[in-house]
Design brief:
The chain is an alpha/beta fold and about 675 residues long. It contains 27 helices and 10 strands. The strands form 3 sheets. Strands 1-3-2-5-7-9 form a 6-stranded mixed sheet, with helices on both faces.
């Protein structure tokens, strides 16, 4: 596609600016430091926003220069994108994929395969939006998570050149850029307030950042005529950028309006640099060592996260020394990638005028090669996805690994079954024999959800309702506190859900027995747990009494159900760590021939016994208390979470099918015996 020359407000050529490479260095360094030391460089992830503004500026300048010179070719544009993005990316994907074969469990490899396909399709932002948060603890275990930002940029450049060409044909370039930027920014601010994950990951809420750079490239704003004003503008930009790094962190509502700090700061620096590059900010950014980091910024961005993620996975976290070593290794790999790969395929913007024709001689061949390479990556990802099949795993791995792999499946009720009204009326939400009248209710959180398969097997000719809402323990008068970004609103949500459940139980007298099972352990002060339970109207001055207060709320909840005439089966708490879960055991088994799922019974009792002893005392003819300790501890000295090679827990609390079967058997005995176990 070639077009005739039209008037444009952009200059015909954007000369090379070392200070922009310096900005790239700032961006990539901040991201790397944030990922290596998230507790120290808390706002470093906004380096991605800096990249977007830079990219929008440079690419728009190139496109408008081509339009003005009657040299605009969509095919040549995509050829340049392929040569810029794919070679280094394919190298990183290939080496990372080989490494994960030795480090990942079969199920993790299947998930990696899905992310590999999404990366090849430049849709990983959508994939990660639907599967994981950027700031969750699990994020460290996803080697390709960082490709979400590449996906947004490439999605943008599928549509932007065509829309820009249409706007240029109509003489509405300025209107297109400003209106598009304003609309996307408003959408970002709106969605960040209620749908932060979507706002973070999706193109429509990020496009304004690239369009802001495009506005600067289009020279919509008048040039700064006085050098001292340009210096002030550049200093203001640097201050805005620094302020963004200081005040923004993973708890901030982002992107939204806060993203204006890094984006406006970057845009101001670029805009002021058009008129004057003698300011201290520009000189600092143009310092040769800083510029050199900017040269390798793309490769460094590609390499750093797989390096950090795989090391984190292998050693279950990173010490300060190991994090520094990860950075050093990333820089070394980035330099090699830049020297041997990027430089052979990518032409810097300053040299494009002399090589556009040579690059465009066989654009279809380049596009075809790039498409074929990505197709091969997708095929490899499809192959890894087959590891979700237990049959395939049993053919490829030892029996012990296959057993553990099958045990790590998280059971999850359909979302429709997490609302009391749907639970009562939809047969698919029943537990056990849906043809029988339901007289039993299982009330709890994801712990109860994991119990459901085992519970269903022991019900036989009975039927039960499952009042399940993940992350919401079945306790009235208590609040779940969780500062993790995606769980912040769960406190109020849990209160409403539990009140609705109690109302449903009251309105249905045919439900005569209620089984209560949830994560009560969060009432204890246990290190490294981000979630804790507090009583309503909690006074931190009585923090040492929190466990007793939560126990009182559990007892109050049981008494309310008892007052309705219900028989209550209350399952007590139990203690385990990730090291006793099938996920961790499987990961260790991948590189070790021996694994151990045992724990001292004294440690187990330290966290579970105080609450269970109190709950046991409330048992009477209407209340049955079940202490789950016999499921895990067959002796007074040792608790074994891997008896006979069969794991009982998925992680530090969710039951496997075998664990659910054992606990459900105790519940069945209690229902029949009508006594405390």
């Amino acid at each position: 596609m070639r077009v005739s020359s039209k008037t444009s407000s952009a200059s015909s050529k954007t000369s090379y600016r070392p200070d922009i490479d310096g900005l790239r260095a700032i961006a990539v360094t901040s991201v790397v430091l944030n990922h290596a030391f998230p507790d120290i460089f808390t706002g470093g992830f906004i380096g991605v926003d800096v990249f977007y503004v830079i990219s929008g500026y440079l690419i728009t300048g190139i496109l408008l220069a081509g339009l003005n010179a009657n040299k605009f070719s969509l095919a040549e544009f995509y050829v340049r994108r392929i040569r810029r993005i794919l070679p280094a990316l394919l190298v990183v994907l290939s080496i990372t994929s080989i490494l994960v074969l030795f480090l990942f469990t079969p199920r993790e490899l299947a998930d990696y395969g899905k992310s590999l396909i999404a990366t090849a399709a430049f849709s990983s932002n959508i994939y990660f939006w639907t599967t994981t948060g950027y700031f969750t603890p699990e994020a460290h275990l996803i080697p390709l998570l960082h490709t979400w930002s590449l996906a947004i940029e490439e999605q943008y450049y599928v549509f932007f050149p065509i829309l820009l060409w249409l706007a240029w044909k109509l003489g509405k370039v300025n209107l297109f850029l400003v209106a598009g930027c304003a609309f996307s920014l408003c959408l970002s601010v709106t969605l960040t307030n209620g749908h932060a994950l979507a706002a973070f990951y999706l193109l429509p809420t990020r496009a304004w950042e690239l369009l802001l750079g495009a506005i600067v490239a289009a020279r919509i704003l008048p040039a700064i005529e006085h050098r001292h004003i340009a210096k002030i503008a550049m200093l203001a930009g640097a201050l805005l950028l620094a302020l963004g790094f200081i005040i923004i962190n993973e708890q901030s509502p982002f992107p939204g309006s806060l993203a204006l700090l890094p984006c406006l700061g970057t845009a101001l620096i670029i805009y002021a640099g058009i008129s004057d590059r003698s300011s201290p900010v520009s000189v600092a950014l143009s310092w040769r060592p800083v510029v050199m980091i900017g040269w390798i910024s793309y490769s460094l961005y590609l390499w750093h996260w797989p390096v950090i993620s795989l090391l984190y996975r292998r050693f279950d976290g990173l010490s300060t020394t190991m994090a520094l070593q990860a950075i050093a290794l990333s820089v070394a790999l980035a330099f090699l990638s830049w020297w041997f790969v990027e430089r052979r395929f990518h032409t810097p913007p300053a040299q494009l005028a002399s090589v556009d024709k040579s690059q465009g001689r066989r654009p279809l061949a380049t596009i075809g090669f790039g498409t074929a390479a990505l197709a091969i990556v997708a095929v490899a990802g499809t192959g890894l996805m087959q590891l979700e099949s237990p049959t395939v795993v049993r053919e490829l791995y030892p029996a012990e690994i296959a057993e553990l792999n099958e045990a790590v499946v998280h059971v999850s009720s359909p979302k429709k079954c997490r609302e009391p009204e749907r639970t009562l009326n939809d047969p698919e939400c029943r537990i056990g024999n849906a043809q029988m009248p339901a007289t039993i209710a299982l009330w709890g959180d994801s712990y109860a959800d994991a119990l459901k398969p085992g519970f269903a097997k022991v019900l036989h000719d009975h039927s039960a309702y499952g009042f399940i809402l993940h992350s919401c323990p079945p306790i009235l008068g208590a609040v779940r506190v969780d500062d993790r970004r995606e769980y912040r609103n769960f406190g109020a949500k849990c209160i409403r859900a539990n009140q609705s459940t109690v109302k449903a139980l009251e309105d249905h007298p045919e439900i005569t027995e209620v089984v209560i099972f949830g994560q009560f352990l969060n009432a204890f002060d246990i290190p490294d747990r981000p979630v804790f339970l507090v009583p309503d109207h909690y006074n931190p001055a009585f923090a040492d009494k929190r466990m007793d207060q939560i126990t009182d709320r559990i007892i109050d909840t049981v008494e309310i159900l008892k007052g309705m005439g219900k028989k209550v089966i209350l399952i007590g708490t139990f203690y385990a760590t990730q090291a006793q879960g099938a996920e961790d055991l499987l990961a260790r088994r991948m590189w070790s021939s021996r694994i151990d799922g045992r724990m001292s019974a004294a440690i187990y009792d330290r966290y579970s016994k105080p609450m269970n002893d109190r709950l046991r005392k409330i048992a009477d003819d209407r209340i049955i208390f079940i202490d789950p300790k016999p499921v895990f501890c067959r002796t007074n000295d040792v608790c074994d979470f891997l008896p006979g090679g069969k794991p009982l827990l998925i992680d530090d609390g969710h039951l496997t099918a075998e664990g659910a079967r054992r606990l459900a058997s105790m519940i069945a005995q209690a229902l029949e015996a009508k006594s405390t176990i």
